[in-house]
Amino acid sequence: MSLEGLRVCGVFCQVCLRFIKGIGSIKKFTDVHFFWRIMALPSAHVTSWRVIENKIATKVNMERRGVQVESNLCCLCRVSEESTSHLFFGCRVAWLAWNLCYTWLGVSSVNLLSPGSHFEQFKILDATTSVNLILCNVWIALVSEIWRHRNKFLFNGGVVDHSKFFSLAQVKVCV
After folding, report:
1. For residue 62, what is the enclosing H or E element?
2. What is the DSSP letter of 11?
3. 10 Å Cβ neighbour count for 94?
4. Maximum pairwise Cα distance, the chain
5. What DSSP assignment string belongs to 104-142?
6. Which residues make Cβ contacts (< 8 Å) with residue 123, sequence separation at least 6?
7. I need a labelling partner for 93 at 20 to 30 A (CA). Which of 43, 159, 162, 166 fits?
8. pLDDT for 62-93, tens place per residue?
9. What is the DSSP string of 12-52?
10. pTM score
């Protein structure tokens, strides 16, 4: 199946309809079997799984576990608290990277903040399993690069560059 021609919410129409109808409330991620069938780098796979399960060490999660942090603001945008949803899907820097991803795939999307729902929107309902595995590999690669870039910036300093970590995610998909 070609992604060409899927425009104006194309891939994501089913997700949009579910949320418009009120069916798409936040729920526990249930597609575990499919997730672990995706051929991704092991480190990226585990990082993405921890994001879906909200077990990643964001500043908000660290505070919840009793670890004192200097500031709980997102280190990429310095605007909002660094929760899992914000860092990966709500932060303006992550949002720019996701927009590059959608442009690369030739699709438009709604910006879902729930990690499981965000992952689910990368699956096309009538596509073959192999196409969906590839699309979800893109999601895993970008999530892991956002996390890697965040840690590099937090611990080593430097410049936040959404296009750079999107490019690195593209390389991970092709490996």
Report:
1. helix 59-64
2. G
3. 24
4. 49
5. HHT-------SHHHHHHTTS-TTS-HHHHHHHHHHHHHH
6. 34, 132, 135, 136
7. 43
8. 999 999 999 999 999 999 999 999 999 999 99
9. GHHHHHHHHTT---------HHHHHHS---HHHHHHHHHHH
10. 0.81
